[in-house]
Amino acid sequence: MPKIQYKEKRFRADSLSLIGKIDGVISEYQEKGYTLTLRQCYYQLVARGLIENTEKSYKRTAALLNDARLCGLIDWEAITDRTRNIRTFSAWEHPADIIQDAAYSYKRDLWKGQPCYIEVWIEKDALVDIAGKACQATRTPYFSCRGFTSQSEMWTAAQRFKTQEDREAKYIIHLGDHDPSGLDMTRDIQERLNLFGADVQIKRIALNMEQIERYNPPPNPAKETDARYKGYAAKYGGQSWELDAMRPEVIEALIDNEIKSFLDKTAFQRQLAIEETEKQELFTIAGNYVDALAGAV
User: Fold this and answer.
1) What is the SS3 assignment for the chain?
2) Do 35 and 97 belong to one domain?
């Protein structure tokens, strides 16, 4: 992974020490296959007791991380911004190449024949890649709500669930912050999908007090300006907890375990076997493209 120096700067001893600890956290998660956002990295430092959980501390960490990358002390690929991405277009050198690529990427709907239809919804766009990693093996659809989901997306989701009328049950596995708005989002999703005529059950699996008590993520003061604060504080007190503060592998395991609790393994393996057979057929076609073309001329 690249550590490239673009400028020089003399760091204080305490700053160099913290940079070393940041690099250690980053390396730990890279070995596990995770790329952290700035906020995730910050919370892992807080959880280890290396920095305070304050707005001032967050800004200092962000500035220090920026300088450390410019000075070649932190890997440039170690921190990701999942909200800003370039869009590109695919291209191939030869028609046979696209068939080959199609063979590699060919996938069946592994939920075909399953009694349930499931989607994973996560509050924050910054955490959507973790949800995607958890959903990859079973190819479960996943979605970033970006806070309270827009009316357009909620209506579209309702229409999508209506196409699954042959299923015994339909579920949304929901994850969000444990704060006045984060908890209310779960209720909001359920009510608006019901309004649009979708028969869906919402299962909130995080953040719940069970995980907070077990994993002890660092708390933040709940926003008193939130219109939902009074009811929240009466039940939970003045503290709140962000989903970002949870270790990525914990979030992934929560999602993975919940998905698998619904899965009919026999039907799942049947679809995988069919997929492999059809994939090999595509590889055969790609390998014989030139001969097939010559025979058609």
Assistant:
1) CCCCECCCCCCCHHHHHHHHHHHHHHHHHHHCCCCECHHHHHHHHHHCCCCCCCHHHHHHHHHHHHHHHHECCCCCCCECCCCCCCCCCCCCCCHHHHHHHHHHHCCCCCCCCCCEEEEEEECCHHHHHHHHHHHHCCCCCEEECCCCCCHHHHHHHHHHHHCCCCCCEEEEEEECCECHHHHHHHHHHHHHHHHCCCCCEEEEEECCHHHHHHHCCCCEECCCCCCCHHHHHHHHCCEEECHHHCCHHHHHHHHHHHHHHHCCHHHHHHHHHHHHHHHHHHHHHHHCHHHHHHHHC
2) no
